[in-house]
Write the structure tokens for this entry.
Amino acid sequence: MLKKEVWPREGRREQALTFLRGRTARAVAAALIGALVGLIAYQITQAGGAWVFLVTGALAGVAAVLGMQLYSRAARLTEVKITVPQFSELTFAVNDESRKVAWGLFVETVTRVSTQRLDEDEGLLREAMNSLYSLFAITREALKAARPSPKVPGSQTVEYFAIMMLNQQLRPFLSVWHPRLRDFERDHPDLPESAWEHNAECRAELTRVQEGIRRYAEGFARLAGVAEPEKLIA
């Protein structure tokens, strides 16, 4: 049997709490560092003379070097080639931030029903449908929260790849089969899914979509730099 997934609203709440905790910790650390720097600056100004300019210049130089290193590390792009479902091989340019986004989407896809085969006599279509809806919502939220990747001529971005998954795999399936299953559940609340006349057809289409999403999961893994992702994908 399939395990129930976390509903999109709960997933968004957990993401928000994690985000706030991270921002709070960074704000406290920044305040402490700022207070320490301010105290040192005050002591230096009391000493007066050339020491003020010497120390100020040294601190400015250190800050500039650290800033350049951080920017260079974040902006460094790596070229990755991926064979995209329904398309030929595409080239992607990724940096540290886009790799982080790709890793998050990889985890979301491989830990859900969206990539786990649903045999004819196992699991529920409703649970699988809810899982796909949750994946759709979480992917959109992840893209909205991330910074746009730098555009490199001749290359695509992680955002482009994720949106392709939404529009090529999830949206077509959900827009057709979710209303049909909902209507059956509304009209026949006491009947099992196996009594639905479109049960076999829907499961066959779900299998096709799951195979496509597994391909996207492999792509996210490559963009994130995951070693041997096939061992992690069911």
About this structure: The helical segments are 8-47, 50-75, 96-110, 125-145, 158-187, 199-224. The radius of gyration is 25 Å. The chain has six helices and two strands. Confidence is low (pLDDT under 50) at residues 1-20, 68-74.
